[in-house]
Amino acid sequence: MSAIFSLALSAFLATTATASARTAPAMAQSGEAVGTNFAILVGFPSAEQAPDRATLLVPGTVIPLAAEGGVPGDILRRQIIEKSLSFTQAADKLWGTFRLDPNRRRQMGRFEQAVPGITLDLPAIEDAGVRLTATLVRASEQTAVYRIQFRQGDKSLADSTVTVARGGRAVVGGMNGPAAPYIFVLVEPDMPGAGSHDAIRSQKVPGITQPEIVQKVAPNYPEEAKKDKIQGIVVLDLVVELDGKVSNIRALQDPDSRLTAAAIEAVRQWQFLPARNKDGKPVRVLTTLTITFALK
Fold first, then answer.
1. 245 part of a folded domain
2. pLDDT at residue 55, as a whole number
3. Nearest to residue 136, comparing CAs of 158, 110, 162?
4. Residue 130 neighbours by CB under 8 Å, 6+ apart
5. Which residues of the chain register pLDDT less than 70?
6. Gap between the terminal Cα atoms of the chain
7. Closest-CA residue to 125 (of 151, 162, 88)
8. How many domains does the chain have?
């Protein structure tokens, strides 16, 4: 039983972190970027659920994960608490609500610095022909407003606007067809001053070298996860600091909360030679790691 890890460089980022920018609708406002994690989940009805009994999900529906009610401040606090739960727990809640097959879950993720007025292409659901885009409309210290669009060719399947607490989580979902019956877009904006806004993607800036790993700590495969025969790939986005230490770790792909916790605990202890600019000076960079937990 092993955990395999690798530093994802240009090949990974070329497929999972390249966004195309376009001018957004006039309602978008100028302002600072908001670090935002986007995750796309695709689910399928369970075998026990008759096709005509599938839970209807209108495309573009904003799905509440936190309890409703109370004053606005309480709702924001509950959203932030909800985000502190494992990504897997939130996904499990969706799967339980819509009675989806727990063994059929497709997941894609991307972290972006969302700039007001710029539309980002999110990971596509290729076999379904569904294109997803996100636009940051405006942001304050407390909330961020996004426009989430679902498109299939020239046809608009859904066009929704969702307000998310900074540090919280919101879900926009919809149904499409056999290749992707249920689609969920999870939107998670950073809290103000999260600390990674001045780090750059070294792959996107000419003259910036890649950080090099000089010390690895292998993740411990959690015994309970082994007993439950849990395996999967954890994808982490992180900052390599000027001194080569790691900070601002976030999970882009979380197959199981136990595996993700083990991966993060190990990666916190990694040491890098920092990236450098063309003048040879160390610079803070964002990069991605993939850690595979595989049973043998």
1. yes
2. 64
3. 162
4. 124, 150, 151, 152, 157, 176, 180, 183
5. 1-31, 48-56, 59, 64-86, 193-197, 202-204
6. 5
7. 151
8. 2
User: Do 172 and 201 share a domain, yes or no?
Assistant: no
- Which uninterrupted H or E stretch holds 5? strand 2-8
The residue to which tokens 């005509």 are assigned: 52
What residue type is assigned to position 149 of the chain?
Answer: Q
For 93-131, give the DSSP string: HHHHHTTEEEEEEEEEEEEEEE-TTBEEEPPPBGGGTBE
Q: What is the pLDDT of residue 19?
A: 34
| 178 within domain boundaries | yes
Side chain identity at residue 124, one-letter code: A
Q: Which two tokens stand for residue 262?
A: 């083990």
CB-count burial class (<10 Å; 0-12, 13-18, 19+) for 291: buried
| CATH number of the domain within which 264 lies | 3.30.2420.10
**268 and 212 share a domain?**
yes
